[in-house]
Amino acid sequence: MIRAAVLAGLGTYVPSRVITNDDLSRILDTSDEWIRSRTGIAQRHWAPPGTATGDLAVEAGGRALKSSGSGDVDLVVVATTTPDHPCPATAPGVAHRLGLNAVAAYDIAAVCSGFVYAMASAAGAIAAGIADRVLVIGAETYSTILNPEDRTTSVIFGDGAGAVVLRAGDPSEPGALLGHDLGSDGSLKDLIIVPAGGSRQPVAAVAASGDRPAETYFQMEGKPVFRHAVTRMVASSEAILHRAGWAPESVDWFVGHQANVRILHAVADQLGIDRDRTVVNLDRVGNTSAASIPLALDDAASRGLLTPGDRVLMSAFGGGLTWGSTALVWPEIVTG
Ligand code: ACO
Hints:
Blueprint: E1 4-13, E2 18-20, H1 21-25, H2 32-39, E3 43-45, H3 53-68, E4 75-79, H4 91-97, E5 104-108, H5 114-127, E6 133-140, H6 151-154, E7 160-169, E8 180-184, E9 192-193, H7 203-206, E10 219-220, H8 222-244, E11 253-256, H9 261-271, H10 282-285, H11 292-302, E12 311-318, E13 322-329
The structure holds acetyl coenzyme *A.
C-alpha cells in the first residue's frame, strides 16, 4: 500500500517588528491607499537587522514539532529564497539547533512555490520509505534582499516562517496529502530574479563601488507575473481537484500563495470557488514567499475557520517560474 504523508503538526513565527504602509510611504513615493487597493496588504513584519532566515525557521520548526506531540523526525526540508548562506544549505543548521542531530537535511529553492515543492519532496521521501516523519519549513527574510529604493517590490514582501510535520500514514486518513501537481517555465526566469550573487554573476563582478549593487537585490516584473500566476494556479488547482475527485464548489477553503488579494480572488473566480472560501492573511503579513502557505493555514486554523473534515486546496506560484498545488482534508491538530 502507498504510504501517504499526513499532516501531524503546524507551527509559525513572525518577527515582532511591524512595518505599516504609512511607515513605507514616509521613505518611498507610495501610499497606504495604493498598496491596499493594488495588493490588499496593510502591514508586514520585517526582522530586525542581524536576523537570518534560519533564526525564524528554528522558531517555527520548534512550534511545529511541539504541535505534532513529538520531537522525533528523520528529515528536515527548508524551503527558502533567502538562505543563511550561499553555502551550506540552511536546513542542517536548523536541524542542529532543534536538537535533531544526524537527521537528513536539505533546502529547496522554488521561491514562492517552495513550500508546496518541499511538501511534495517530503511526501516522496515518505512514500519511498526514506523517512517516516519529516519537518517541512518555509522561511524567509525578504527584508535582506529588498531594494529600499524600489517601491514596486518593497511594499509587497514580509519576513516570516511556517512549518509542518508530515508523518507516514494511510491515504484515506484526514490530513493525508491527496497528490501533488508541480511545474515550471524557466524561459521566464528573469521575471523574478536576484541577478547577482550566484555563479552567473558573482558579487565581486558588480561590487566595484562601496554601495550595495542594485543587481544583488530582488527584482520583479509585476504585471506579467500577475497574469502567469492566475493562469498557472488555476490549471494546477484544477489538476489537483481532478486527482482528489473534488468538485470546485465542494472545497471548503482555498489556501493560495498570499501574493496579492486580486490574484487570490481571480483564481477563486476562475475555479468556481466562492471568494468567501479564500483564506486571506496577506493584509497582516504581506507576501512571505515560501512561508506564505503555512502562515495562512495557521492563521485560518487559529481564527477557527479551518475545522476537522474541511476540504482544503493549496496552490502556489513564484519565481522560476514555478507553481504547485496539493490538497487535504483538515485533520484534528493543535497548532503551535
Ligand atoms: N506605490 C505607488 N505607485 C506604484 C507603486 C507603489 N508601491 N508601485 C508601482 N506603482 C506605480 C507604477 O509605477 C505604475 O505607474 P505608471 O502607470 O505611471 O507607470 C502604476 O503604479 C501601476 O503599476 P503596475 O506595476 O502596473 O501595478 P499593478 O497593478 O500591476 O500592481 C503588483 C503591481 C502589485 C506588483 C502586481 O503586479 C502584482 O501583484 N504582481 C504579482 C506579484 C506576484 O504574484 N508575485 C508572486 C510571486 S513572487 C515570488 O515568487 C517571489
